[in-house]
Amino acid sequence: MDLESYIRALPKAELHLHIEGSLEPEMMFALAQRNGVTLPWDSVEATRAAYAFSDLQSFLDLYYAGAAALIHERDFHELAMAYFARAHADGVVHAELFFDPQTHTERGIAFETVLDGLERACQEAQTRYGISSRLILCFLRHLSEDEGFATLEQALPHLGRIHGVGLDSSEKGHPPSKFTRLFARCRDLGLHVVAHAGEEGPPAYIVEALDLLQVERIDHGVRAAEDPALMARLAREQVPLTVCPLSNIKLCVFDRLEQHNLRQLLEAGLKVTINSDDPAYFGGYVGQNYLETAIALGLSRAQLKQLARNSLEASFVPEALRSPWLSVLDSLPTD
Ligand code: HPA
Ligand SMILES: [Zn+2]
């Protein structure tokens, strides 16, 4: 079996995917036209050409601008269905989707419009593709904790449809400690909790996310490698890291994929997973992330299998749901 087919055959979970980051320029333009929204670019080509980022903020500015094309329930549904089609083609059996309600409610879109469209797509993905999924509400960390509390208030009637919360947007200058009370409240409500940390921010932000927010997974976390004590802790506690290799290259966290530390983290015994983050902006969905990383870092098939296993084990699905996928994974060869 060639490498691409092998990667596709691995049953895998995607745990770090911003659904707004799967908005391809073609759909962005179609929606903008349908909704009478003016975008800052003239064409699909000009949009793609603008995707040359120097850091996280330079990406976020475009990502929030593109999200303005999303207005109606059906827009969110179409967006997520397009993602699920791609994920299915890549062998994804389970996906935990981040969504950013504040990006939309700030523009006057109702919280329910966003949630209804995404949830309808999640249900359809189950029947059409057999993909199970969960929705994780992300708080924008450049906004205040009080604004986060206001968003949580809007989410309260819908907690049966929201599985967890996360923390995204501009990392530097917005440490996890800013959201200690909000995350404590979310944990009290029985929500799962994750946070972006150690993408651009220092290892201390990872420690804060663990100790203050008590997160169950760290999104990105690649800067943990700068702190040996933290590395030892992450290995000992088997805290999953949702690493996004192509994102890290596009946002200049590493200069080249060959220099990415994913293999180092994996070989140090950390529970590393591979994910796509914002695939429409970063040049590849999850399968492409596995493939390019495998080639650049010379990952073995046993390591690829381990990465897929980690993704299933790090997901928020119950053991019983997970075990059939793990059996399929176990049956695949490693040579
Ligand atoms: O990679 C990311 N980092 C932080 N916030 C984000 N929001 C979408 N993508 C990202
Ligand atoms: Zn992310």
UniProtKB/TrEMBL annotation:
Cofactor(s) needed by this chain? Zn(2+)
User: Which parts of the sequence belong to the Adenosine deaminase domain?
Assistant: 11-324
Q: Which UniProt keywords apply?
A: Hydrolase, Metal-binding, Nucleotide metabolism, Zinc
EC annotation? 3.5.4.2
Q: Name one GO cellular component term.
A: cytosol
Residues annotated for substrate binding in this entry: 278
Q: Which residues bind Zn(2+)?
A: 16, 18, 196, 277
Sites annotated Important for catalytic activity: 220
The Gene Ontology biological process terms listed for this entry are: adenine catabolic process; hypoxanthine salvage; nucleotide metabolic process
Is this entry keyworded Ion transport?
A: no
Q: Which is an annotated GO molecular function term of this record?
A: zinc ion binding
Cofactor comment text? Binds 1 zinc ion per subunit.
Which Pfam families does this chain map to?
A: A_deaminase
Write out the catalysed reaction: adenine + H2O + H(+) = hypoxanthine + NH4(+)
The record, for InterPro entries, names: A_deaminase_dom, ADE, Ado/ade_deaminase, Metal_Hydrolase
- Enumerate the active-site residues: 199
Family per similarity comment: Belongs to the metallo-dependent hydrolases superfamily. Adenosine and AMP deaminases family. Adenine deaminase type 2 subfamily.
The function of this protein is:
Catalyzes the hydrolytic deamination of adenine to hypoxanthine. Plays an important role in the purine salvage pathway and in nitrogen catabolism.
Query: What is the designated name of this protein?
Result: Adenine deaminase
Organism name: Parazoarcus communis SWub3 = DSM 12120
